[in-house]
Specification:
The chain is 32% helix and 28% strand. By secondary structure, it is an alpha+beta fold. Helix 7 packs parallel to helix 13, helix 14 runs antiparallel to helix 15 and helix 20 packs antiparallel against helix 21.
């Protein structure tokens, strides 16, 4: 039987024993390999010589004879000395003796090794496992599981105490140590037990290969320490950092809620959701409530470690059912985090159907925290553990409270942005005209796309303004910058354009007045905004009678013209400077626009939607392929605004499509008269005759008075030639053109005045009247309702 000391020293390699065979004279006749290594002398150097020649101090040997046992100091071949313990054994032959020697420190070393083994086996904080070449346990201080980690019975392997998928990696690491001899130092290893109670540990593992006296591998010695608390603390720290960096990256409230559950699953929980107040989702402040009942919450975001959301749980988008008046509900409303389990929650709800909606079937531990910001409970975040065996702890509650506090600020910022953005978008939408308009001579369709997928609003706008005599002003503009400031500036410019258009100014003159307005707005702005007040604008006036369109540009991209059956192309407009520069004139361009043509006025944001090297050509080609002459303008506008689909646009964009239509047959009548008083009668006769041909005898009397007054004034004050035009459509338009640029003015005649009542009568007999200037002279127009 072995002693305890011998058992403790099990596995310690025996000392190397040097052997020398000497004859009766002390001459060496045999020399072992161990002796060669110990004295560092090869056999030929020692053989056939006296063993006493190896002694470092011959004088210490009495009578020149080596004692049978004792200690001696030998000279090594390297010049050093080594102290040995030796003994001499006689052999059957009296002529020969065997001397056995070991280094004097080997016995002490063996004792130290045994003491080390005993110390390792007695440790409670350091795990020690000695495994054989099959990686089975030979010696360990974890046989009863009293110390670090799961129990490790003698003879067990890693796959017996760990889940097989988890055991594959550490077994491969130990096998590499056994085969290569390269030690494993400080390796982090996670262990999940394969038997109840299911627990999870993290160890710092080091391993070295063990060898026998001949250097052959005998197994692996493994040392490990429990780093579970440190690992869990580090995991919580990483989760806290990741949540801080990842939550609130956008101002979208739904996306922010999703970022919360994405941060929690799967590192913190197996199932998580965020419920938000209906008012918060709408951008408003939720009401302050206390106690149970309908909390007006809605499931905003969900995440499951298994990928698919469990079918029994409340789905995303659904309203949260009313809760009874529970203590945990009140704690959440007071801003505290709660930790509970399925059984406790089931007792509180007292409704199996409600429990199925509120807890996963295999959920065993739940934690919930309120999203509490600025004194408002915006919602709550809840998490369950299903596959993870350990329940939530106090440290988990502290962690979730911190994440919820950070998340609440992100949700509240998104809520406030939602409210402000919705107000700004509503303001901009109200400032824009109807997207679709239709008259007998023109159909329009407009579209607007905010920048960044709706996250930003700007100052792009379009307008279609109906002018007298069936003419239409088409406008598109782009204010510098984004946000409410740009939107407000856009509203002021659109109002100014409508006012100037009612004055029937030519497009170039209209832009000149608008340029003065923008300069004044820049002067009114503060120093920080003075340099960003500006805009580009394009104004086009279409005359269906002449079949032409006159346009002018203030730093704006040219419109596209798609004639019927032809290819779309940009109109050669000479752009002036952007609005607000001042001091430069604008130039008008007139182009023929046959009936059935489509004009596409757009801002530069439309071109940025296309990633092509030549975006203008890409838009032109697409417009041609869409065949705008006979297609749905709204669908065409939507197709053009979709762009290349490469992502949300960086700039907002506005588009206005206008398709011209022909006037009805025999809808226009023109005459020219000399500046002769007798021309007044001829003009009356021509007008009444045409009205009779049109079947509009009911308008003859009023038209005769209007023509008489306007032609008389032209002959008397302006000279000739005098033009008369009648246009029949939904209304009857009468136009008189003369070469004078004098603005007609209506005045109230006194009782004794012989004149001054003409324009007053015209205004009383018509729906509306006005004048516009041309290249040479002016035109006074009068609009009447058609008689029954």
């Amino acid at each position: 039987m072995s002693t305890k000391a011998e058992d403790a020293g099990e596995g310690v390699p025996p000392p190397q024993v040097a052997a020398a065979l000497v004859d009766r004279r002390g001459v060496v006749i045999g020399w072992s390999h161990a002796a060669e290594r110990l004295v560092e002398r090869p056999a030929p150097e020692v053989m056939h010589r006296s063993v006493l020649r190896l002694l470092a101090d011959r004088g210490a040997i009495p009578a020149g004879r080596l004692p049978d046992r004792g200690t001696a100091r030998l000279r090594c071949g390297s010049g050093k000395t080594v102290t040995v313990r030796y003994r001499t054994d006689g052999l059957r032959s009296p002529e020969l003796s065997l001397i056995l020697a070991v280094a004097a420190d080997r016995p002490a070393e063996a004792e130290w090794d045994a003491a080390l083994t005993r110390a390792l086996l007695a440790q409670e904080r350091i795990g020690f496992v000695l495994r054989d070449t099959d990686l089975a346990v030979v010696r360990t201080n974890l046989a009863r599981g009293a110390h670090v980690g799961p129990p490790l019975p003698v003879g067990s392997r890693l796959s017996d105490v760990m889940r097989p998928p988890d055991a594959a990696e550490p077994e491969a690491g130990l096998r590499a140590v056994l085969e290569t001899g390269v030690p494993l130092a400080g390796h982090e290893q996670r262990v999940r037990s394969a038997r109840p109670p299911y627990e999870e540990w993290s160890f710092s593992v080091s391993a070295v290969r063990t060898q026998d006296a001949h250097g052959r591998p005998t197994g692996v010695a493994v040392l490990f320490t429990d780093a579970t608390r440190h690992w869990r603390a580090e995991r919580r720290r990483e989760l806290r950092h990741r949540a801080s960096a990842g939550i609130g990256s956008t101002l979208d409230i739904g996306r922010t809620a999703q970022e919360v559950v994405d941060a929690l699953v799967p590192d913190f929980a197996d199932v998580a959701w965020v419920d938000l107040a209906d008012a918060a989702l709408a951008g408003e402040e939720p009401p302050k409530t206390f106690g149970g009942g309908d909390l007006h919450l809605r499931r905003a975001a969900v995440r499951s470690a298994r990928g698919t959301w469990p079918s029994g749980l409340l789905p995303p988008g659904a309203p949260v059912p009313p809760f009874p008046d529970l203590a945990m509900v009140r704690e959440l409303q007071e801003g505290r985090t709660i930790v509970t389990d399925r059984e406790t929650l089931g007792r509180g709800l007292a409704d199996p159907d409600h429990l199925r909606l509120a807890a996963p079937e295999d959920g065993h531990s739940m934690i919930a925290a309120p999203l509490f910001a600025r004194g408002l409970v915006l919602g709550l975040v809840a998490a369950w553990r299903t596959d993870r065996p350990e329940p939530f702890e106090e440290e988990d509650a502290i962690l979730l409270s911190e994440i919820a506090a950070h998340s609440a600020l992100g949700v509240d910022n998104a809520r406030r942005y939602t409210r402000e953005h919705r107000a700004a978008v509503t303001l901009q939408r109200r400032l824009l005209p109807q997207a679709v308009t239709s008259t007998r001579v023109m159909e329009t369709a407009g579209a607007y796309v905010p920048a960044s997928g709706g996250a930003q609003i700007g100052g792009d706008w379009f307008d279609a303004i109906a002018l007298p005599s069936l003419r239409t002003a088409l406008v598109v503009g782009d204010v510098t910058g984004h946000g409410l400031h740009a939107t407000a500036t856009m509203g002021r410019l659109r109002t100014a354009v409508q006012t100037l258009a009612d004055l029937e100014l030519p497009p170039d003159e209209l832009l000149a007045h608008l340029d003065d307005l923008v300069s004044r707005l820049a002067g009114e702005a503060g120093p920080a905004q003075h340099d960003v007040v500006g805009a580009t604008c394009l104004v086009a006036v279409h005359d269906p009678v002449a079949g032409r369109c006159t346009m002018a540009s203030a730093g704006h991209p040219p419109p596209l013209l798609a004639p019927p059956g032809g290819r779309a192309a940009p109109v050669a407009v000479r752009p002036g400077p952007p609005l607000g520069v001042g001091g430069f004139p604008f130039e008008a361009t007139t182009v023929d626009v046959p009936p059935g043509s489509v004009l596409a006025l757009h801002t530069d944001g439309l071109l940025q939607h296309y990633g092509a090297d030549d975006p203008a050509r890409a838009v032109t080609d697409l417009l041609t392929r869409l065949r705008p002459a006979d297609g749905d303008l709204t669908a065409i506008a939507r197709a053009l605004m979709s762009g290349s689909g490469s992502g949300p646009p960086r700039d907002d964009a506005a588009l206005l499509l206008a398709r011209t239509a022909p006037l009805g047959e025999d809808s226009v009548a023109d005459w020219t008269f000399p500046a002769d008083p007798r021309a007044v009668a001829s003009a009356r006769e021509a007008a009444t005759g045409k009205l009779a041909a049109w079947g509009l005898e009911g308008n003859s009397f009023v038209t005769e008075l209007i023509v008489s007054e306007l032609v008389t004034n032209a002959v008397r004050y302006a000279g000739g030639p005098v033009g008369l035009r009648l246009v029949r459509d939904e209304a009857l338009f009468c136009e008189v053109t003369d070469p004078s640029n004098t603005q007609p003015r209506m005045r109230r005649a006194r009782v004794g005045d012989e004149g001054g009542r003409g324009l007053f009568l015209v205004a009383q007999l018509s729906r509306r009247w006005g004048s516009r200037y041309g290249p040479t002279g002016k035109t006074i127009w009068v609009e009447q309702e058609l008689s029954a």
